[in-house]
Design brief:
The protein is α/β, with parallel strands linked by helices. It has 11 helices and 7 strands. Strands 1, 2, 3, 4, 5, 6 and 7 form a 7-stranded mixed sheet that branches. The structure holds zinc ion (2 copies).
Length: about 280
């Protein structure tokens, strides 16, 4: 299922017209999608030439297909996107909060060591974060700037992952965590979607993707009367994952739903749970 930023932007605009809804948050988010759509048109990638055996070995070992050193980034383009994202986030604190001053310095550039730390989940270097390793604004900006590159790789590589083979709690392509899941309409299987590259993959219905908990006593969900939207929570690791039932919401676009369900994020956090994914944009 291909969902380019341009498609998501179009669907969001249709939804807005139908609902006659507007908010500054949504307008800022649309501006971000426009930047990413601009980048999508310019990104050219060279997917790693992985043989079938290497693919099998990586997946069998639980290793995502795209290693950081194979994730080749066009740095001048990435920095152009980065500057646009920083300018947007700086003008729209409602998106993620205040942008740290270091990112707005005229000479500041995305660097490989920063992106490596973010990609591998090791965190950003101390001299960038000022010691604040939980700085979600920094991560969200890097994420937003690199998403067009990562989704291009994901589209090139996903065909190598046999459907149903990978059933882990993180993305088979980039190793990112899911930020939304869905129950598909045919047989009711559960799929997760990567917060970073939008890859979708199968997952067990009754298991926490974060800690692997399968104890039904500590897994539950909250939902409204329609049961279309569910907030799956795990009382072992205290995380939540938004889930949409596509049997009841046919044709829904997940990248759009991810955005339109922010009230569920608020609900989850009010109930004392953390988002399973630390990257929300
Ligand atoms: Zn991914
Ligand atoms: Zn858990």
């Amino acid at each position: 299922m291909k969902n380019s930023s341009k498609d998501v932007l179009k669907k969001l605009e249709e939804w807005q017209r139908e609902e006659a809804f507007s908010s500054s948050f949504l307008e800022s988010y649309k501006a971000l999608l426009s930047i990413q759509a601009w980048a999508d048109e310019r990104v050219k990638i060279q997917a790693p030439d992985l043989g079938r055996r290497a693919v099998k070995r990586r997946l069998a070992n639980g290793a995502p297909l795209l290693k950081f050193d194979e994730f080749k980034i066009d740095w001048p383009l990435a920095n152009e996107v980065f500057k646009k994202v920083v300018a947007l986030f700086s003008a729209s604190p409602e998106l993620m909060g205040e942008v740290p001053a270091i990112f707005s310095e005229p000479d500041f550039k995305l660097q490989k060591r920063m992106v490596r730390g973010w990609y591998n989940g090791a965190g950003l270097p101390d001299d960038i974060t000022g010691g604040d390793i939980e700085n979600n604004v920094l991560k969200a900006i890097i994420h937003a700037a690199l998403k067009p590159f990562l989704t291009a790789y994901a589209q090139a590589l996903i065909g190598m992952v046999e459907a149903g083979y990978w059933r882990r709690g993180y993305c088979p392509i980039c190793g990112g965590t899911p930020d939304i899941s869905f129950i598909e309409e045919e047989v009711g299987e559960r799929w997760l979607m990567c917060s970073r590259c939008d890859t979708q993959w199968h997952f067990q219905r009754l298991e926490c993707p974060n800690c692997g908990n399968q104890d039904q006593k500590s897994l539950s969900y909250f939902s409204d009367d329609t049961e279309i939207y569910r907030l799956y929570v795990c009382d072992k690791c205290h995380t939540y994952l938004k889930t949409i039932d596509l049997k009841k919401a046919k044709g829904a676009s997940l990248p759009v739903e991810r955005l339109l369900t922010f009230d569920m994020d608020v609900q989850g956090q009010q109930k004392g749970y953390k988002p399973l994914s630390s990257a929300t944009i």
